[in-house]
Amino acid sequence: MSSFVIPAFVAVLVGCGIAVLAFVPFVAISYRRRGGLTFGHTLVWLAAAIYAMALWTYTLLPVPPADEITCAAVQLRPFQFIADILSFDTGSVRALMTNPAVLQVALNVVLFVPLGWFVRQLAGRGIVVATMTGLAASALIEFTQITGIWGLYSCAYRVFDVDDLMMNTLGAVLGSLASLLLLRRREGLQEVDAPRPITVARRLTGILCDLLIWVLFSWTVSLVFGVTAAVLDDGTLTEPGPIVALIGFILPFAAQLFSVLSRGVTIGERLVLIAAVQVRRPVAVGRTLRFLFGIGGYMLLSQWAFPLSGLLLFLLVAVSAVMIFTTRRHRGLACVVSGTEIDDVRARTATVQDSLDG
Q: Fewer CB within 10 Å, N or C, the chain?
């Protein structure tokens, strides 16, 4: 891969990984601060995560081998880039467009334009904050370079340039100004407490949160135990044993069981503000069925293999997926079997408030 493709690939890969790790809290915060979650808002945050990684990958990668490092100089003279530009041919527009010093300055500006845009669009801050953020981010990158990635190398392998600080900051300012021309309407902020319909996307988001809670918790438990064992032993990471895997399964399983038995909904459904409003069966029976034909059944069938377990798991997933689209209010299989009706939490709150006011 080329020196351009490798940083882009790493930025997309790591940025998407961070987005997955942050998805559950992102959903919870979006529903409580914005009233809901939109595809556009999610896409902008994903782009921000990838961009944040791109800032690092394009300024630090590729990392040279330690035995091949060449110590770089330090440039502390402001506006040195003007002399650098004049040292090349500047006699025509084409010459300027191909001037290496001009291209360097332009890239330093363009690289930080998205930062200023994100500061205004996502954080709601103006030019002053964008300027300080651009300066701080650029300084962090430059000092990471000059210290050889904070002591990892014996000296800097890229030039510390004060002009880079200036141009990066300018880019953030221009991005903040440009965002004024592209202001998005902030959906949901004006009616955060207003009830929203139960949509397919909302139901699938809750299901995805449930699965991520289980998978990420299990992965975290395995990682913590593995690293702890490696530190206490010979430093070699080993595959976690059955006890560790069991702990990683039991804790999220118990949390989901408690949530369904006590509230009638899963943790993921609570994150997207879905509430159980009616159970046509006895509560204990209905909520037990809700758990077994929902997240509980999926976790059990995924964890323990027995004859026909794979077929049962496939049928559970397939039927549940179809019924999310075809049932009233997109209740799905577990709600139908358990006789559970669901609604927006805010609709219940509004009903209770109306009855109190009446």
A: C
Q: Specify if 192 maps to a domain.
A: no
Question: Would you say residue 188 has pLDDT above 80?
Answer: no
In one-letter notation, the amino acid at residue 261 is: L
Count of other CB atoms within 10 angstroms of residue 91: 8
Max distance between CA atoms of the chain, in angstroms, equals 86
Residue 259 lies in a domain: yes
- Give the closest residue to 248 by CA, choosing from 221, 229, 228, 216: 221
Tell me whether residue 187 is in a domain. no
DSSP-based three-state secondary structure for 134: helix
Query: 323 with 333: CB under 8 angstroms?
Result: yes
Residue 358, pLDDT > 70, answer no
The model carries a pTM of 0.81
Going by pLDDT thresholds of 50, 70 and 90, the confidence category of residue 354 is very low
> CA-CA distance, 354 to 304, in Å (whole number)?
48
Q: How many structural domains are present in the chain?
A: 2
Asked if residue 227 is part of any domain, the answer here is yes
